Design the sequence.
């Protein structure tokens, strides 16, 4: 019985260590964003992620892909964080509003 408890404790600690290691890798890393941080073929996937929470999916995807093609950058998350992609952040419409979602 003692061996079983020791084994279960060891397995629990091992899984905890693996989980913590994986969660550290998934954290926001500002060096992985910015102009030119993407290849053009990556824009579709990044824009799908960026536009995943909006109810205006088609226009969001259209403008996100347009901005990504120009800037080769899509900010992290589904909203905000545009400061990590200056090109994406500074591209404006004729009316002065943001062009990129």
Sequence:
């Amino acid at each position: 019985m003692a061996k079983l408890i020791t084994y279960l404790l060891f397995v629990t600690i091992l899984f905890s260590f693996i989980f913590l290691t994986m969660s550290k890798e998934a954290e926001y890393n500002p060096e992985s964003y910015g102009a030119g941080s993407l290849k053009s073929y990556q824009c579709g996937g990044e824009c799908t992620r960026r536009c995943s929470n909006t109810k205006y999916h088609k226009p969001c995807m259209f403008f996100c892909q347009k901005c990504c093609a120009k800037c080769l950058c899509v900010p992290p998350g589904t909203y905000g964080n545009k400061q990590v992609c200056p090109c994406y952040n500074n591209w404006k419409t004729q009316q002065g509003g943001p062009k990129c979602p």
Q: What stands out?
A: The helical segments are 2-25, 43-50, 57-71, 86-90.
